[in-house]
Design a protein that fits this description.
The complex is a heterodimer of chains A (about 230) and B (about 450). Chain A has about 230 residues and is an alpha/beta fold. Chain A has 8 helices and 12 strands. The chains are: A alpha/beta (about 230), B alpha+beta (about 450).
Chain lengths: ~230, ~450
């Protein structure tokens, strides 16, 4: 997977670049908008990470230009401007996701993975989602594990559906807040933890093979760790 | 003209002006009419008097015989237009004059008589009003008068002209007033619409100018200059905040990157604890910065377009988000928000408002306490109330709490930025709402009311 990183802050670029390389991605870095445009036109990338404020050609104009040229590569916008409005502008200009600085590297990696999977069609759009013996029927709005019906509240159902569409993929708290509660700011308390632990109670209690895992410092992942028959 | 046009001050002014002018013009024209009538009447009387004096002279000089001659001559000569004469002897027999018989007088007034005579003109019977004076000349009675038909006709014409004059003046004034009122009202309406648009966040809109340089134009020009300055200042504040955000977040990001790199390189327990605490502090700094930027955004007009928001649904969802947290702290969180409560607003800022109020309540209410979230909708406004039975805020400190970074000394140890209620106040202001902090006896009740969407 090849990623183009356009970021003028050298230290931030180094940090993000090394983090991505450690995670197994190939990274090319550019320090301004014009270089970024040239690089994006010269080679095929799987993902573009573009800072909003860039010298010579700002990030949003660069994205808009690439989109106008028919470049469909997913774009993650990085910005030090974090109000709701600027998010909306960023997404409207053609960005696929928006991340406000300073962010944890884990948050960036989770978003990068989510974007790459979405681009490769790896988000499951089927009506019945399964992992191990857990089954969620989107249309009937029913959840069962090992054949036993599980009662969930509407939000718990939405939470589980979001996770099940991204099996084996780390999902962060802010991603959940945005997707399930449509909140684009961080409440101070760790609300999501409480909701996840309630969901875990509902789907994992009494089963030897836990499916919903907390990744410390990152978020959560739903996966079949394989101890089940 | 639409319903309630009388509410327009210019229309009322025009109507008042119209009434004044019509009364004035009526008084003037009617006075002219009356004066003309009196002048004509006295002229008639003067002419008759003069003629009687002249006839009396003739009588004194030549006796009845001479008088008859003079009268016959005057009748034959058509000397005076509309003149009427009749001389009779003591038996009532006509001696001279152009009346065939003594007229029937209804109401004699001293020497004056008014009556009507009939004449056959072109085969038609026509009556003429006559005013005449009566004198006794040695047993004979002499009647000298004037046919008033012509004068009556003239007065009737004058009366008609006067009434038409008044009516036309009224119509002209009404039309002028209507045009004036519409013109002024139209310009005021244009200004009002522009102002409303500006208040609702469209800071680039300006008042319409028509280059007439009249008072309205001058006023609009002055207001526009004022708006330009406000816009410049708002833009300057926005730029400052954006630069501040950028200049603070850049270094914060590098600090975080170094800490994370350090954490990965040397995960030894002691150093990593220090680093994790620093990262947590960094989160708090970041949160404070985000809140400040949100306040700045709300104060600068909110930016993005507003949408229709059901406050009740938003409150229900946020309540559900906080319910597990409240339960863990042993707080009873209740919600009353059944009916839809629609307002026009910024979804994220309103959600942040609601979140801040809920977080505050859950943070300060001790275990076993109650927090209640209520949304009510009337046709005019929507109120969102968060009340608790916690420690509350002393009356003297309430107004202060809405300013940034103000916290009660009591809460100094509790985590928090002191920005939550400032953001609430800024968001309420942005939505033209009202914010009230009251005593819940015991506890605090925060009530935000917003104008409802007009149906």
């Amino acid at each position: 997977m090849q990623i183009l990183l356009v970021e003028d802050d050298a230290e931030a670029a180094r940090h993000v670049g090394s983090g991505l390389r450690e995670a197994g991605y190939g990274v090319q870095t550019c320090a301004d908008g014009q270089q970024g445009r040239a690089a994006a036109q010269a080679a095929q990338f799987d993902l573009l990470i573009i800072d909003r404020m860039l010298p010579y050609l700002d990030g949003l104009s660069l994205i808009a230009e690439l989109r106008a040229q028919g470049v469909r590569t997913p774009v993650l916008v990085l910005s030090a401007l974090g109000t709701v409005d600027e998010r909306v502008e960023g997404l409207r200009a053609g960005g696929d996701d928006y991340l406000v600085k300073p962010f944890a590297l884990a948050e960036l990696l989770a978003r990068v993975e989510a974007l790459l999977r979405r681009a490769s069609g790896d988000v499951r759009h089927v009506g019945v989602l399964r992992v191990a013996d857990l089954e969620l029927n989107v249309l009937a709005r029913r959840v069962s594990r090992g054949g036993r019906e599980i009662a969930l509240t509407a939000k718990e159902f939405q939470l589980l559906e979001y996770l099940l569409r991204r099996v084996d993929q780390v999902v962060t708290r802010t991603m959940l807040l945005e997707a399930v509660w449509n909140l684009h700011f961080d409440p101070q308390t760790n609300l999501i933890d409480v909701h996840i632990s309630r969901l875990r109670q509902a789907i994992d209690r009494g089963f030897a093979n836990p499916l919903l895992h907390t990744i410390r410092g990152s978020g959560y992942v739903i996966k079949d760790s394989g101890s089940a028959p | 003209m639409h319903r309630g046009w009388l509410r327009s001050s210019t229309a009322r002014l025009a109507l008042l002006y119209l009434c004044g002018v019509v009364v004035g013009v009526s008084a003037l024209l009617w006075t002219v009419y009356l004066l003309t009538q009196r002048a004509m009447d006295s002229q008639v009387d003067l002419v008759i008097h003069t003629e009687i004096e002249s006839l009396r002279e003739d009588y004194r000089g030549g006796g009845p015989q001479r008088l008859v001659e003079v009268l016959d001559q005057r009748v034959d000569d058509w000397g005076r237009l509309g003149a009427v004469y009749l001389l009779v002897d003591s038996q009532g027999a006509q001696l001279a004059g152009n009346l065939s018989s003594w007229p029937h007088v209804l109401a004699p007034q001293g020497e004056w008589r008014e009556f009507e005579i009939s004449a056959n003109e072109h085969g038609r019977e026509v009556t003429h009003p006559v005013r005449a004076a009566l004198v006794n000349l040695g047993g004979n009675r002499l009647l000298v008068g004037t046919d008033l038909s012509e004068r009556r006709r003239f007065m009737a014409r004058l009366r008609t002209t006067t009434i038409w004059g008044i009516a036309l003046t009224a119509v002209f004034m009404a039309l002028t007033g209507w045009w004036f009122s519409r013109r002024v009202a139209g310009r005021v309406r244009g200004v009002a619409q522009a102002c409303e648009s500006i208040i609702s966040g469209n800071l680039t809109r300006r008042l319409p100018l028509d280059r007439s340089f009249d008072e309205f134009d001058q006023l609009a020009g002055a207001v526009n200059i004022m708006l330009d300055r406000i816009e410049q200042q708002t833009a300057a504040v926005r730029t400052t905040f954006n630069s501040a955000a950028h200049d603070l977040r850049g270094p914060l990001h590098r600090i975080r990157a170094r800490l994370e790199a350090g954490l990965q390189a040397a995960p030894a327990a002691v150093s990593s604890l220090g680093i994790e605490a620093t990262l947590a502090d960094l989160d708090r700094v970041q949160h404070t910065l985000a809140m400040l930027l949100q306040i700045a955004q709300a104060e600068a007009g909110g930016g993005s377009a507003q949408e229709t928001i059901d406050v009740a649904q938003m409150a229900r969802e946020l309540c559900e988000l906080y319910a597990p947290e409240a339960r863990e702290r042993g707080i009873n969180l209740a919600i009353h928000a059944l009916r839809p409560a629609l307002i026009c607003g910024h979804q994220q800022l309103l959600a942040q408002l609601c979140t801040n109020l809920l977080e505050n309540a859950i943070k300060y209410v001790p275990g076993g306490g109650h927090v209640e979230l209520q949304v009510r909708a009337t046709p005019y406004n929507v109120t969102l109330t968060v009340s608790d039975d916690g420690p509350g805020i002393p009356l003297a400190a309430r107004a202060n709490m809405l300013l940034p970074f103000r916290r009660l000394e009591r809460d100094a140890a509790a985590p928090g930025s002191g920005l939550g209620l400032s953001l609430v106040a800024a968001v309420v202001r942005l939505h033209h709402g009202q914010l009230e902090l009251t005593d819940n006896g015991p506890g605090l009740r925060v009530c935000c009311s917003f104008p409802a969407i007009a149906h």
